[in-house]
Specification:
Blueprint: E1 6-16, E2 24-34, E3 39-43, H1 45-48, H2 53-59, E4 63-65, E5 70-74, E6 76-82, H3 97-109, H4 115-131, E7 134-140, H5 145-158, E8 161-165, E9 167-168, H6 183-198, E10 207-213, H7 221-234, E11 237-242, H8 246-256, H9 260-266, E12 274-278, H10 284-293, E13 296-299, H11 301-307, H12 314-319, E14 323-326, H13 338-354, H14 362-365, H15 374-381, H16 383-389, E15 404-408, H17 425-435, E16 441-446, E17 449-453
Parallel strand pairs: 1-4, 1-5, 6-7, 7-8, 8-10, 9-10, 10-11, 11-12, 12-13, 13-14
Antiparallel strand pairs: 1-2, 2-3, 5-15, 15-16, 16-17
Helix pairs in contact: 4-5, 5-6, 6-7, 13-15, 13-17, 15-16
Bound molecules: xanthine.
């Protein structure tokens, strides 16, 4: 066997979800990585044992062996994260969305004109997300061009796969004077940003720009149309918020007599590379349109608990095959951890299924058969995220980018405990999803490049 194109191999136990709702346990598997950072092969013991490949790689110092306490999982994918809100995390989540945006978010985001502040915050955020196992992140930046470039450069420099958008907001009815641009300026800066990200030195596709109208209330129809035309003509990613609360849903109805999806569709903003955060109040027609266009939905469970006024219809969207992944929605959450988002997606669906009012009989309290499983949520944070982004990531499969995370149960003082003889592979995966904390994440690779190495126990 010719091993020359292999840069390194990893030997150990791995989990991934090739099929939504099912997991595969790859026991003692050998994953080899090629010069482009892609997975070259995923081999089970019976496929590599007689080939001599393990000995060959080990002899050349190109093999990493995982210990029995270490598990390899696909890199986690955060489909919705507001980078400038990182210093705001943990504040004001007992307020309604409109008050939270006006009192905390817009004043903070306006500060990013200060490039030194941007460098400091974005450096810390990207390091923290990588350290939590997030190998791909879709970021809203702020309104400003140069600080948005700082975010894109930080991701490239630290090696995170990123999709970064300069935020667009031009409607004087809803945006404060101090945090608004004209439609013309928004479009010009979006074009400039798109061009600059594509031309960043050393960017071979790791960082992409995203056309980013904040949400319907913050943009005039004219700006939405201009951005839609630009995104279509340049095959850009698009991200925005969609029908995220009663207030946001009603706003579109009052202003346009349409749903958010209908407005995005009409203005050319809905396509295969569109990511819709939240999407709580979708009509059946909206769902058909989203599915038909191949757009993706970023479900942000904890944020929804705070701001959505209702529960997400995750079960129905997954069952209908709509592209759907998870978002942390920093700072409408209390952690960037995507494994925490997985767990929150499950509890969110369970509350929906059971209902809440003690004044109603059990059978009338909730919406039956609407829960999702831990494995389904893990699929959303890995393979489902990759599918939503139309990227070959989120699985251990030949040809996919080697984005991977080592979760180590042997780090001291942690909640992830695997009991010998008591935990099946299914139990272990559920424990990883439910109890992993940041210091269990000991090694992280993005496109074959190791970006985190904590050199801890094991
Ligand atoms: O959770 C949210 N965070 C935001 O920053 C935002 N802007 C509009 N709608 C939003 N929702």
């Amino acid at each position: 066997m010719d091993h020359s194109e292999i840069v390194f191999g990893i030997l150990g136990n791995a989990f991934h979800c090739p099929v939504m709702g099912e997991f595969e346990y790859l026991e003692n598997a050998l994953i080899t990585v090629d010069t482009a950072g892609r997975i070259q092969a995923v081999l089970r013991p019976e496929e590599y044992q007689s080939s001599g490949i393990v000995q060959a790689l080990e002899g050349q110092g190109r093999l990493q062996r995982l210990t029995a306490s270490q598990y390899l999982i696909p890199g986690l994918i955060d489909l919705h994260n507001h980078a400038p809100q990182w210093p705001q995390m943990g504040k004001g989540l007992d307020l309604p969305l409109y008050d939270w945006l006006s009192n905390y978010t817009f004043p903070l985001e306006a500060k990013y004109q200060d490039l030194e502040f941007a460098r400091q915050v974005y450096g810390d955020l990207v390091q923290s997300t990588l350290s939590s196992g997030t190998t791909s992140a879709v970021y809203f930046s702020s309104l400003h061009l140069e600080p948005s470039l700082v975010l894109a450069e930080t991701c490239l420099d630290k090696g995170q796969r990123a999709f970064v958008g300069k935020v667009c907001m031009d409607d004087p009815d809803q945006c404060p004077d101090y945090y608004r641009q004209s439609a013309q300026q928004s479009l010009y800066e979006t074009e400039t940003f798109n061009h600059a990200v594509a031309g960043m030195k050393g960017n071979q596709g790791l960082v992409s720009s995203v056309v980013t109208p904040r949400f319907i209330p913050s943009c005039t129809e004219g700006l939405l149309k201009e951005l839609g035309q630009f995104a279509t003509a340049n095959d850009c990613y698009v991200q925005t918020h969609c029908s995220e609360s009663d207030w946001a849903r009603d706003y579109s109805q009052q202003k346009y007599g349409e749903t958010d999806i209908s407005v995005y569709e009409r203005t050319g903003l809905l396509g295969r590379k569109t990511l819709l955060a939240h999407s709580i109040f979708l009509t059946n027609q909206d769902i058909l349109i989203i599915k038909d266009r191949g757009a993706g939905i970023a479900h942000c469970p904890l944020s929804n608990m705070c701001f959505a006024n209702a529960a997400m219809t995750t079960r129905e969207l997954l069952d209908q095959g709509v592209h759907c992944g998870l978002g942390s929605d920093v700072a409408a959450s209390v952690t960037p951890s995507m494994l925490r988002s997985c767990f929150d997606a499950v509890t969110h669906s369970r509350v929906r299924e059971e209902g809440t009012s003690t004044h109603r009989p059990a059978g009338e309290r909730g919406e039956s058969n609407t829960r999702i499983s831990l494995v389904e949520s893990f699929w959303m944070a890995t393979a489902g995220g990759g599918q939503s982004l139309d990227q070959n990531i989120g699985l251990f499969k030949a040809g996919f980018g080697f984005d991977a995370v080592v979760v180590d149960a042997a780090v001291p003082d942690c909640d992830l405990t695997i009991w010998p003889g008591m935990d099946s592979p299914a139990d272990i995966l559920e424990k990883i999803i439910s109890t992993t904390s940041r210091h269990n994440v000991t090694r992280v690779w993005v496109q074959g490049r190791q970006v985190i190495d904590k050199k801890t126990a094991g």
